[in-house]
Amino acid sequence: MKYYPVFWNIAGKKCVVVGGGDVAARKVTRLLDCNAKVCVVSPGLVPELEELKRNRLIDHVNDAYESKYLNGAVLVIGATDDEKINDAISKDAKEKNLPVNIVDDPQKCDFILPSLIERGDLTIACSTGGQSPALARYLREELELVYGEEYAVLASILGQLRTKMEKNAGVGKTWFNQLMSAGLLDAIRIRDTRKVKTIVRDITGEEIILG
To answer: How far apart are CA 209 and CA 202, in angstroms?
Structure first.
């Protein structure tokens, strides 16, 4: 199946995770990283989720799954080990026109979750369309060796320059090529802050902030 790749802003929006185990905890953590408002539906929670509940980082419905708990959500993730419950979650979500993911069961999903490489605001997603999660993980591990933390800094620098680039048509690509040719990435890798700032200033005339 061919999936439509998209990055979705879910900050402040209700996302429901059904299940209280370790798999559910991983899904919840990812949603919280995106500043979603997470509601977990499960009679029990693993310690990681209990801690999130104590810290008021998630809402918890201490009950068996019912379709009413999906009301108001923008997406649903089913992470239980009960096939009948997962079937019901998928059916109910689709009836409510809510995108749904059932863990490890792409046939019941409207969307699947890719394997991710994250470097600051830079995110690279790997997916095999649900054919082989193992291959997606392998590709992620290979890419992690290529794209190190220096790319987080590079993305931040380019983000700071973006407004001026947009105001000057055509300058963006030129600046980017010049910055890379001048060794900006290598300077970032060796943490030569002075050289990084000098390269950026000489090419763009801009002063940047490095974290």
So the answer is: 15
Q: What is the dihedral of CA 80, 85, 91, 97, to 10 degrees?
A: -50
pLDDT at position 165 is: 82
Superfamily in which the 1-113 domain is placed by CATH: NAD(P)-binding Rossmann-like Domain (3.40.50.720)
Q: What is the DSSP string of 55-119?
A: TTSSEEE-S---GGGGTT-SEEEE--S-HHHHHHHHHHHHHTT--EEETT-GGG-S----EEEEE
Structure tokens given for 62: 């201490």
Only one residue has tokens 């992690």, namely 144
Name the segment(s) of the chain with CATH classification 3.30.160.
114-148
Question: How many angstroms separate the CA atoms of 114 and 173, rounded?
Answer: 29
How high is the pLDDT of residue 4? 92
Percent of all residues in the chain with a pLDDT value above 70, rounded to a whole number: 100
| CATH 3.40.50.720 in the chain, residue ranges | 1-113
Q: In the CATH hierarchy, which top-level class contains the domain 114-148?
A: alpha beta
C-alpha pair distances (Å), 22 with each of 9, 25, 128, 181: 25, 5, 24, 46
